[in-house]
Specification:
Elements (H helix, E strand, L loop, with lengths): L2 E7 L3 E6 L4 E6 L2 E4 L4 E4 L3 H18 L6 E4 L4 E5 L2 E2 L2 E8 L2 H7 L6 E11 L8 E2 L1 H6 L5 H23 L3 E12 L5 E4 L7 E5 L9 H4 L5 H13 L2
Antiparallel strand pairs: 1-2, 2-3, 3-7, 4-5, 6-7, 8-12, 9-10, 9-12, 10-11, 12-13, 12-14
Helix pairs in contact: 1-6
The structure holds thymidine-5'-phosphate.
Length: 236
């Protein structure tokens, strides 16, 4: 597998072409941003942790029937993934009120929601990823009804699988964000990452935050939190 030209650079990752037209290489950076890029910083070794944690969780989900873009981890920061067209919808799943939901609806952080909440945002940095619903998805032709229904089904199943998996590691899954991609043959697969950047992880007992909120909110011990998640998931 040959790493070729850079195709794309995002806020946390770079993507490179390979000599196989169906595969690309993702390279995770230590760069951290929040509030749509307004706050910038570095979290040491975040790229390594997010690469390894994402792959660990994607492999687990694959064994439980969720198709993902994961192919092979080739270094601490680099992974071969299927080349996909990203569906421009950020899917947010919430079990416990936190973050923007708490702010928007006045529900105190930490309140258990009576029912799991599924939200969609239109993935567009210039617009600040505005929240949308299924009518917007179809009006803008971001996905077909069949595709969105599959995306919603996968997202709820991923929530159940991750919640159970993390519970055994004393991690409470508060909420998280998913992105999906479409392969050349039109198959919808889970893409992007599942990491402390994109999930809220709280210690089950102490409720200590073990995720990017420590960076967003200047809480300190950011690196320690990322390391702790890697330790609990990968045992190192
Ligand atoms: P929110 O409460 O700020 O809307 O975030 C909900 C979840 O989505 C939280 O686990 C963090 C994640 N998230 C991202 O992965 N990327 C983003 O750009 C935002 C705003 C949130």
């Amino acid at each position: 597998m040959k790493k070729m030209e850079q195709l794309y650079e995002g806020k946390a990752k770079k993507v490179y072409a390979t000599d196989d037209p169906n595969l690309v290489i993702v390279d995770y950076k230590d760069d951290a941003t929040a509030f749509n890029g307004l706050k910038k910083g570095t979290i040491q070794d975040k790229g390594i942790i997010n690469n390894r944690v994402t792959n660990h969780l994607m492999k687990m989900l694959e064994t439980k029937g969720i198709p993902t873009h994961f192919v092979e981890e080739i270094s601490d920061r680099e992974t071969i993934v299927k080349k996909v067209t990203i569906v421009p919808i950020e899917v947010i799943v919430r079990n416990i009120a936190a973050g923007s939901l708490s702010k928007r609806l006045g529900i105190p952080e930490g309140t258990k929601l009576a029912k799991t909440v599924l939200e969609y945002s239109y993935k567009d940095d210039a617009l600040g990823d505005p929240m949308i619903n299924d009518y917007h998805v179809f009006a803008m032709e971001l996905a077909t009804p069949e595709e969105l229904s599959l995306i919603a089904d996968y997202s709820f199943k991923i929530n159940d699988l991750l919640t159970d998996y993390l519970k055994d590691l004393n991690i409470e899954l508060i909420d998280f964000k998913l992105e999906y991609g479409k392969t050349a043959d039109g198959t919808i697969v889970l893409a992007d990452e599942i990491s402390p950047d994109t999930c809220r992880f709280w210690d089950t007992v102490t409720h200590e935050k073990l995720d990017k909120d420590r960076f967003r909110r200047d809480m300190g011990n950011v690196e320690d939190a990322y390391q702790e998640i890697m330790k609990r998931l990968l045992g190192e």
